[in-house]
Amino acid sequence: MEKPRNIFRVCSLLMAFLFAYSASVQLNDPDWYFWFPLYTLAFAVNLINSKRVSKSRRIKQITRTTLSLGLFLLVKVVAEDVLTEKVGVLSLDLTHRVVREKIGSALVIASMVLQLRASSSKPKEKCVDFGKE
């Protein structure tokens, strides 16, 4: 029954590497001060939880902060896209900066929601009473 936990660990590690790369390429961006902390915090949470799901209060606070920052930046990017009308809100054309930022913040949001759900789930009992229904 350890298989779902192992899949979660591998996915957390892969997302940590993705967010580390994303943080590294943000350093030459004009608004790096928004995106670098977002990707760095997402990297840290995923890396910590790839070893074991942390139930630490501090890690949960960092995860919630990262989720809030991701939501703020997603709203910022969508509002910028609606106001400038350069791309469409539902566009997936990665040649545009706005689309890349929308996808990046959406990935951070999805990852943080999954990390919060994993850290708040209660472990199931593994004991079995034989002969009882």
Automatic annotation (TrEMBL):
Any Pfam family from its record, for instance, is TMEM220
Transmembrane segment boundaries: 32-49
Q: Which InterPro entries match?
A: TMEM220
> Per its UniProt entry, which superkingdom is the organism in?
Eukaryota
Q: Which residues form the signal peptide?
A: 1-22
**Annotated keywords:** Membrane, Signal, Transmembrane, Transmembrane helix
Q: Which PANTHER family match?
A: TRANSMEMBRANE PROTEIN 220 (PTHR34262)
Name of the protein: Transmembrane protein
Lineage, opening ranks: Eukaryota, Viridiplantae, Streptophyta, Embryophyta, Tracheophyta
